[in-house]
Structures are given as C-alpha cells and as structure tokens.
Amino acid sequence: MSETLLDGLRRFASREEAEGSPLAVALFAIPGVTEVVLTGGTVTVTKDHPDPWQVMGKRVGVAIRGTLASGVAPVAPAPPALAAEDEALYGRVADLFEAEINPAIARHGGYVELIDVQDRVVMLRMGGGCQGCGMADVTLRQGIEASLRERIPEVAGIVDVTDHAAGTNPYVSASKK
Questions:
Q1: Most buried among 4, 24, 50, 86, using CB within 10 Å?
Q2: Among 145, 90, 154, which residue's Cα sits nearest to residue 116?
Q3: Nearest CA among 87, 101, 77 for reference residue 154
Q4: pLDDT per residue over 37-55, tens digit each?
Q5: Domains detected in the chain
C-alpha cells in the first residue's frame, strides 16, 4: 500500500478497541480476524479462521479498498492519557534496546528496531541477520521478551512486525525445502 494511513502505529486486539477507526472496524467485520496492526502504509491482520490466506486476503483487500474509497479518516488517534503512558514506556524500552539488547544481537549480525509502544505492547522489527533467521523466534521470545519482562514488567506484550520472508542475509539460514 502506498497511502500513509497514519504516523506512528495503532494496534487493535478486538472489535471494541477498533470502534472509531473505520478501517479496523471493517477488518474486524471479517469472520476470524483477531488482531489488526496499522503503521504508516502497512496493514497487518492476524486470523484464527480455517480459510486459507488466499481467501482471507481477498476479504481484507475489499475492506481496505472500501474504507479508503469512503473518504473518511481510516484510523483514529490513540487516546491522550494512554498515549502519554506509552510514550514514557517507549523511552525505557528504547534505552534497554540500546544499552543491552542490540549490543548482544549485533554479535550475530542483527539488530532490533523499536517501532512503537501501544497499550503497553512493544512493537518491534528485526533486521540484519535476524530478519529471516531460523532462530529469530527464539531470540524474540527467550532473549528480547524475557529481558523486557524482567527489566520493565509494565510491558504487556511484544509484537514482531518483521517480514521474515524478505530476509536476505540471515545469520542462520532457514532450512531448504
């Protein structure tokens, strides 16, 4: 998508959270959608429906095109009080990434970029040797998430928005099929 939806990032984990944001409402109207993450011009949808992505993707595309064609703002800004709390948490997470997490990951040719903190959920993107690496999930869950939960217990969760299929230089190559 080339159209910028919003500056920053919004994450919706339910229909109720999506109220007031027409694009998220339209996506949650699709049976099986469980989460919507919107950032810049990127829309990420998570599903728990048995239909394959080829089928679900068509529905998602219709919802996106319909919302954008309506002319209304597709995404509402985050509530101010929550935004202030997340902003303070963002600074603490950024400091931890810079001081401890990225130096450790850099030894394996990778890095982690903090995208945003929303509703106390950390959004990150893995790069370098981490993008596309077969061990990225282990690094994420046992390394990054464990450090965040230990050092900053207010963090409610972690979401990796990396397109691992686009990785070109993984430290540990994924197995060939």
A1: 24
A2: 90
A3: 87
A4: 887 778 889 899 999 989 9
A5: 6-69 (3.30.1370.70), 80-166 (3.30.300.130)
